[in-house]
Amino acid sequence: MGSLNFDHPPEFFPNESPLDPNEFRRQGHIIVDFIADYYENIEKYPVLSQVEPGYLGKRLPKNAPDYPEPIETILQDVQDHIVPGLTHWQSPNFFAYFPANGSIAGFIGEMLATGFNVVGFNWVASPAASELESIVMDWLGQLLCLPNSFLFSGGGGGVIQGTTCDAILCTLVAARDQMLRRIGRENIGKLVVYCSDQTHSAFQKASQIAGIHPRNFRAIKASISTSFALSPESLRSTICSDLQDGLIPLYLCATVGTTSTAVVDPLEPLCNVTKDYGIWVHIDAAYAGSACICPEFRHFLDGVEGASSFSFNAHKWLFTMLDCCCLWVKDPNALIKSLSTNPEFLRNNATDSKQVVDYKDWQIALSRRFRAMKLWLVLRSYGVEKLRNLLRSHVQMAERFEELLATDKRFEIVVPRIFSLVCFRVSPSAISTELLKHENNINEINKKLLESINASGSMHITHTVVDGMFMLRFAVGATLTEEKHIIMASKVVKEHADAILTF
Amino acid sequence: MGSLNFDHPPEFFPNESPLDPNEFRRQGHIIVDFIADYYENIEKYPVLSQVEPGYLGKRLPKNAPDYPEPIETILQDVQDHIVPGLTHWQSPNFFAYFPANGSIAGFIGEMLATGFNVVGFNWVASPAASELESIVMDWLGQLLCLPNSFLFSGGGGGVIQGTTCDAILCTLVAARDQMLRRIGRENIGKLVVYCSDQTHSAFQKASQIAGIHPRNFRAIKASISTSFALSPESLRSTICSDLQDGLIPLYLCATVGTTSTAVVDPLEPLCNVTKDYGIWVHIDAAYAGSACICPEFRHFLDGVEGASSFSFNAHKWLFTMLDCCCLWVKDPNALIKSLSTNPEFLRNNATDSKQVVDYKDWQIALSRRFRAMKLWLVLRSYGVEKLRNLLRSHVQMAERFEELLATDKRFEIVVPRIFSLVCFRVSPSAISTELLKHENNINEINKKLLESINASGSMHITHTVVDGMFMLRFAVGATLTEEKHIIMASKVVKEHADAILTF
Q: DSSP code of B454?
């Protein structure tokens, strides 16, 4: 490291090109083994990193080294200093947030994309990158039984974005500009956007970035009476009230599988409301969209035909490494009108011919990675049937966990489980009067349970609060998770509850 | 492929986990060799892909396969169908756009980040990802001799964004909101942003997304009298005129190394103008920023101390695979105020302690890849001195190319070369009267030269038009480029000129 520089004068290091094929081969093989070893040993690490804030600054030098360091030294540092600071998202005992499930095919796809390292801002900059993206997005759209109007074959089209926030921001800006072209730019302050209070915070952020007045951001309260789904009646009355105030309804973000509890908004009734007002509807199926490639889950997308755009994150639950958010729109021109720029240095005959897709005009950034590669690899390496079965196995494991907890009277399943997320808590009825004297309330006890489980390192779960209720979220989907991990997880939860509930 | 599914019934395929370590090892090694072979053979491919629009759709099935396909089959398809559709950015004969130069360290860093596949939205989700990012951004900031006020140690801080457009959008939104908090949201239509007509189109796009009125986007003409740099006098007079019209100056995007011709805007005089009006100055050094780690180029950043934010793309010219845009800001709180969201499901004790950096609040997206890993690997694997020498060698090769062309009277170097970009054209004096009868003008002849060179497949360059003048851009920076490629490139240019200029 830095202090060792004088021990490693430059002449000890080969002067080869930083892309020398032989050295690439040598180091590449070393790293493949390093990562394979990591997966083999992953259960040995505490799932949630146990380091303290600032730990790494104490271990690394204050400056970049002057001279080259061998890969072996660097990898030793990765093992000694980086791995302890990781929260192990690929661990079979990772049940936090939503999964970011990796796969060999996803990894290989990233390697190929990184190895080619093409910058596919427009078609001519690498035709294969653009064309493969259009093809796999049509493949995936078909798997989801999206209406043809979302596919290239039907006049719509799909694009791979980084994240849902990007997807929402791009479609929101398209909707905004479409509206402002009609009513005049000066009316930007009148535009109103809608969602429920269960909608992902990405929507609030996108609205903020797009210049929607914060006063016009409507997070309609979703109550327990609708299982925390957005009520079409509430939406309609909110819209009507805004219209009466002289405001202009613009955009609705509906969710299939909310982040807190994986609830599904009723798409068809919601779209029936919005179509009366010309509102752009985006459907965010970031997590649960993957499950909808299984025929038995597809009905959760019923009503999607009424939306203007739809997105889900293949990097969450479809074995495609971060990042890979799949977005389809019915009207690519709306996106292009807002997001295209045509600097002279990018002009080319293919673009002028209008026969090609230039994805730079479908996204925020100009430069773009060849993300279609990993999606293609995943679809081909596993095939549709195996992907469906893998997703089903995750749902079944979540069901198993739910059963294991439900048979223990101390716990309650707070929200009906649909996909692979179980929301549970220690039930108020399980708390002794004695214990309640020392604990503020049921939420505090559940928070204590959460922290106790995570501090153990044996598994990692996270929490949410809905309608004032603190609950624990158990999300199944890590690729290495097997039934034995689920059984162990239920034991861990119960053991920690034992300790906390016994006074 | 799709049609072969019946020949590959599922029972022929192993039922292992998609992240089985042994299979990971097997496939990982295959791919390392595949990519190493690609680099070894890269000069055999035409640099600019020669495929026709729609080529890939004719070669791939219409649907995703139902059953798994072996990696060997898929790789054969990559070789047969994808590689011909690539424009080979890693080729030593790639001189187009700006480079996206890869390296073994950059690749290895991506592999590690992809293998761990952590989602580092906040500190607790993977402490090492956040902390390493802060550390390497301070390292890099020191290398660039950025004022301490841009570093964490000085109250500022750095963050890795995807691209310059992200960096500009984030800082523009921060500046916008800071101003609107003062003057009221309803005044968004009065905000004015400034740049030159040589500024990258990313700024126009970011302004559009952030809701800046298109009428208030000032692309001040940069003339040949200032070598196409933005004139402080023009900036001041434009600002004064806007103020007289009751508008509110907000943001200036100055450039170190413009995309068309690598011109450097005069930072210090520009900042002297803006400071009188409280304007946020962002410095976009996307390409040329890398060179500024060399002491002899650092003076191009003089004046950066007057700016509010600074960014450059390590994925262009610092051997760090796409994408890796390094952004520093003096006032992280301005970013955080605009971009933070605090959903309950992400609340945690580390965040509450305010001892950690949660990078989700510094960027558009919530989820983020572990990009710091590759930057760290590049800095350590090569060390500062070697990196400087590599950059110098690119500049020297550009100089060599410039000399080789300058000694041929048919060519003229249009803009003084500073970094590794040579802007040249066939000189009007080289055109015979006979030829001019058949060609519209000098620009058409240069366009023909460009197309002829690119169609040959032997090298790839692109063009720009500045002040009505069509010129060819020759950007050196691909990692595998050696002097012999430069000499060959100059020969190719001359040979194609021979053919075009001979009538």
A: H
User: Would you tell me which CATH number, out of the four given (3.30.2000.10, 2.60.120.260, 3.90.1150.10, 3.30.420.270), belongs to the domain B384-501?
Assistant: 3.90.1150.10
Give the ranges where B326-431 is alpha helix by DSSP (H). 332-339, 349-353, 372-406
Q: How many Cα neighbours within 13 Å face the side chain of A28?
A: 28
Maximum separation of any 2 CA atoms in chain A, in Å: 79
State which fold the A380-501 domain adopts.
Aspartate Aminotransferase, domain 1 (3.90.1150)
Instruction: For A119-369, give the CATH class.
Output: alpha beta
| ipTM attached to this prediction | 0.96
**CATH number belonging to the domain at B148-341, selected among 3.40.640.10, 3.40.50.300, 3.90.1590.10, 3.40.50.1820:** 3.40.640.10
Look at residue A212 and give its three-state secondary structure. coil
- How confident is the prediction along chain A (503 residues), in pLDDT tens digits per residue? 333 344 444 444 446 899 999 999 999 999 999 999 999 999 999 999 999 999 999 999 999 999 999 999 999 999 999 999 999 999 999 999 999 999 999 999 999 999 999 999 999 999 999 999 999 999 999 999 999 999 999 999 999 999 999 999 999 999 999 999 999 999 999 999 999 999 999 999 999 999 999 999 999 999 888 889 999 999 999 999 999 999 999 999 999 999 999 999 999 999 999 999 999 999 999 999 999 999 999 999 999 999 999 999 999 999 999 999 999 999 999 999 999 998 888 999 999 999 999 999 999 999 999 999 999 999 999 999 999 999 999 999 999 999 999 999 999 999 999 999 999 999 988 887 777 776 668 999 999 999 999 999 999 999 999 999 999 999 999 999 999 999 999 999 999 999 998 86
Helices (H), B144-231: 164-183, 201-209
Determine the CATH number of domain A2-85.
1.20.1340.10
CB-based contact, B492 to chain A, within 8 Å: no
Buried b / exposed e across B266-276, counting CB within 10 Å, b at 16+?
A: bbebbbebbee
β-sheet bridge partners, residue A424: A413, A472
Chain B nearest C-alpha distance from A356 (Å):
6
CA nearest to A261 within chain B: B345
DSSP label at residue A420: S
Task: Determine contact: B184 vs chain A, CB below 8 A.
Answer: no
Find the closest chain A residue to B473 by CA distance.
A345
Owner of token pair 């019946």: B6
Residue spans of the domains in chain B: they are 2-85, 148-341, 384-501
A89 vs B contacts (CB less than 8 Å): 116-119, 126
A401, A440, A432: which is closest to A419 by C-alpha? A401
